[in-house]
Amino acid sequence: MASTQVRTLDQISVSRLKGVGAAMQQKLEKLGLESLQDLLFHLPIRYQDRTRVVPIGQLRPGDEAVIQGQLISCDVQLGRRRSLRCKLRDASGGVALRFFHFSAAQKNNLKPGMTLRCFGEARVGSSGLELYHPEYRAVEDDAFEPTEQQLTPIYPATEGLTQPRIRGLCEQALAIMEQQGGLPEWLPESLHQQFDLSDLTSAVRYLHHPPVGTDLLQLSESRHPAQRRLAFEELLAHQLSLVRLRRQQQQHAAPGLPPGGTLTQQFLAQLPFQLTGAQHRVWQEVASDLSQPLPMLRLVQGDVGSGKTVVAALAALQAIEAGYQAAVMAPTEILAEQHMLNFSNWLEPLGIQLDWLTGRLKGKKRTEALARIADGTARVVVGTHALFQDEVQFHNLGAVVVDEQHRFGVHQRLALREKGRASGLVPHQLIMTATPIPRTLTMSAYADLDCSVIDELPPGRTPVNTVLIADERRAEVVERVRAACREGRQAYWVCTLIEESEVLECQAAEVTAQELTEALPELRIGLVHGRMKATEKAAVMDAFKGRELDLLVATTVIEVGVDVPNASLMIIENPERLGLAQLHQLRGRVGRGSVASHCVLMYHKPLSQQGRERLQVMRETNDGFRIAEKDLELRGPGEVLGTRQTGMMQFRIADLDRDGDLLEGVKAAAAQVELLPQNCDGIIRRWLAQGEQYGSV
Ligand code: ADP
Ligand code: MG
Fold this sequence. Notes:
Blueprint: H1 22-30, H2 36-40, E1 46-48, E2 64-77, E3 83-90, E4 93-99, H3 104-109, E5 115-125, E6 128-132, E7 135-139, E8 152-154, H4 163-179, H5 189-194, H6 200-208, H7 216-220, H8 225-250, H9 262-270, H10 277-290, E9 297-302, H11 308-321, E10 325-329, H12 333-347, E11 354-357, H13 363-375, E12 380-383, E13 397-403, H14 410-418, E14 428-433, H15 439-442, E15 450-454, E16 464-470, H16 474-486, E17 490-494, H17 502-519, E18 525-528, H18 534-545, E19 551-554, E20 567-573, H19 580-587, E21 597-603, H20 609-620, H21 624-641, H22 656-659, H23 663-673, H24 677-687, H25 691-696
Parallel strand pairs: 4-6, 9-14, 9-15, 10-12, 10-13, 11-12, 13-14, 16-21, 17-19, 17-20, 18-19, 20-21
Antiparallel strand pairs: 1-8, 2-3, 2-5, 3-4, 5-6, 5-7
Helix pairs in contact: 6-8, 8-23, 8-24, 9-11, 10-11, 20-21
Magnesium ion binds at residues 308-309, 434.
């Protein structure tokens, strides 16, 4: 183990290396390379095999190889592009070297008869197999010319940082690592045995310099044990930091909220339906958490329409009955409005005072709302993230419900916790997501949460039939709408976001509504978009619910909220612009009644390969979990979690898709390492540059 006197590799700046001045340091910084340890974990993206000379006759297109042969001819070819072509041959066959950029001196130095040692990639060119711009040098014909002893690493680089330079820097870092007796090993021996892991230092050494005979295919697929060793430790670091976060959370006290009061009974009695089995089970899990004097941190996953809101209301009621306030936070104004509507319908009859707070609430109304929140008159407060600004002071916040958590990150979760501090108690947190989170992610990004799943839809739903139609066939689609409405059904026509611009999206919806009104004069058509006043929106929605409208043209605002069982047809324009999760949400607006519903994805040609694949998934399944998994596979966890920008869950080496199978082991390992504080610290510090951030809040 490193002595405390010697600075560890993560504390030594790259500027200490030979040849690293201010300019070079900046370039390295661009690649995230600040310390020697960063360099050691800057692994090659691939390797070249320069360890042996390949007979020319064995070259195949795509091979990268060292060859050696006699120069037969060397001439300038004038074709579409002027080039220098040199023919080379050895005992096994011939090949051409091709240079599109060359100097006169270069040409003059290449004399037929000489022997050349070359390195390059073989391709099929105009004269058979050719090497474009190979590296080459003249060698003595029969003198012994050594080849490289190890595979040659190719590193991720950046403008102005050549391979030889970065290779040299990694060499220096490796040499210092060896001088220090290797990297500190934080994984206990027992784990090495249990999971058959090599030691970290050998893994790092190996990956920078794989010996002759290494399985390059395995390396290129990142399945080599040395790569897996590093990925394992990195995943473990994330896991440990989340576990630690959770422990810290549990050092705080929360109000124990006794379950099963009379308001709860009344609420259930007045609901127009019975809870599904899944809702009941999840509610019980939540209720039991809430009754403990430890802060709950629970994620409820449930597909669109599975009825999460009722569970949220039950949680809020438990807080209210115990004399505490509850807050409900949504990511958008519209979703917050919808919750406000639901909660007031359910809770006002029980005599519960609700309040409402978003960024749009201004002036006197805002001041008054803030006052009611602060003195405790407001029992339930519904709003957007505006709820968690400093000026908002709760009287005694007992529970927080956060909807659509995947749009918030770990840090927001921590900020929420702070809101209960006034009373010295931390509020319970219930986090709801309609986008099912694939298992690999619940085991990593969400490892600090307990999880409940509402895996059952309320009775009477019929699966939505989804079709893909190119927008050239718009006229047919319009006819379809006409036919459906003639039969007394209602339909949605959704216009999607154009380049992230709400204004443009609304304009597009206005134009579409106009066109459809002309094409379908016999239908009653309404329009709703995000830039309308809340009251205007509500009026249109009400009209649609009340069957005063046949067709509702909308922007993606209807993603959430509306619930009209008689609507059985949805047209989505340019679905290729949306994420799968969002499409799934939108589609969840139909299929709420007992008649068969249809969703038309009216895409714009040409679709990319990925675009086509994604829409196919929508056609093939109504299962939110499968859709989420596919989304993860196609777009990667950063996109799916929406955290690419925030830098959360960025791995240097691990890849959740590729290394997801390690997570079971990582979880088990975390339980053991957690008991060894020094090792735990060491691992977290090594891998999480922002480790302090996770820990300090
Ligand atoms: P989501 O999980 O997508 O948020 P909601 O909570 O909005 O789902 O519920 C969708 C619809 O299903 C709402 O109209 C709600 O009133 C209704 N609902 C919820 N639970 C049940 C149930 N157990 N039986 C019948 N309808 C239900
Ligand atoms: Mg919902």
